[in-house]
Amino acid sequence: MHCNYCQKPIVRNLKVKEILFPWTLPISELCDDCRKSFVPLKKAGSCPGCMRQAASFCLDCQAWQRQYPDYEFAHEALFAYEDSFAQWLAMYKFTGDYRLRWTFAQEVRQALKKYPGFILCPIPLAKERWQERGFNQTTGFLQAAGSSYQELLHRTKQDLPQSKKTREERLRLAQPYRLAVSPEKIYGKKILLVDDVYTTGRTLFHAARILLTAHPAQIRTFSLAR
Ligand SMILES: [Zn+2]
Ligand SMILES: [Zn+2]
């Protein structure tokens, strides 16, 4: 097997389980060097709202809490958005290397076990982005993790891609989502909104606000990185 990211051959002894039950062999693996290059985030020492390094709720989350007093602030992100992650994301998302949807499949599968009974809802892409790239990076990594999801939201309008906007422009961006399903499909359900990266939180809050109009029982949010 080759590393999903750097393509170096991976030499390791098979586990007993993998020899006895070859179908349990992972479809894709990361080599140790690549795995070590990403920085996993820990809940301890992080803002409970967004997992930024902070002793308690960070100033951004405090501002969000004033705006959304009824919302549960408990975002989970798996990795720090630092150089290695940014490089990986650029290759996956902007170069469009769709094989990389497998890179974090094991970590995502493991993390999502903590959300039993939740409907996973990926943040939708604008049509223009989808046409450019040919795939939604979030549904890509969810599929690779073997997680089923439901596209509860549509994206209505598009301006510049997030990466070409300043932080201020991102914060000003108007509500870009609407429901893609009838409200009964959301009413009383637990929903986990999933995105690739948590930047300002704005994307997820816009999405949550639309879902809340259909009165779900609970909304939580999850991203690969923050
Ligand atoms: Zn590698
Ligand atoms: Zn925070």
CATH architecture of the largest domain: 3-Layer(aba) Sandwich
CATH topology annotation of the largest domain: Rossmann fold
| Regions with little confidence, pLDDT below 50 for 5+ residues | none
Number of strands: 6
Order of helices and strands: HHHEHHEHHEHEEHE
Shape, please? globular
Query: What level of helicity do the residues show?
Result: 25-40%
Ligand inventory reads:
zinc ion
Helix-strand category:
alpha/beta
Average residue pLDDT: 91
**How many domains in all?**
2
Through-space gap between termini: 30 Å
What proportion of the residues form beta strands (DSSP E)? Answer: 5-15%
Number of helices: 9
> Which class of the largest domain in CATH terms?
Alpha Beta
Biggest sheet overview: 4 strands, parallel
Describe the strand arrangement of the main beta sheet, using strand numbers.
Answer: 1-6-5-2
What Rg is obtained from the alpha carbons, in whole angstroms?
Answer: 18 Å
Summarize the structure in words.
Helices cover 32% and strands 14% of the residues. It is α/β, with parallel strands linked by helices and 226 residues long. It folds into 2 domains: 37 residues, no CATH class; 188 residues, Rossmann fold (3-Layer(aba) Sandwich), CATH 3.40.50. The strands form 2 sheets. It has a 4-stranded parallel beta sheet with strand order 1-6-5-2. A two-stranded antiparallel ribbon has the order 3-4. The radius of gyration is 18 Å and the shape is globular. It starts with 15 loop residues before the first helix and ends with a strand.
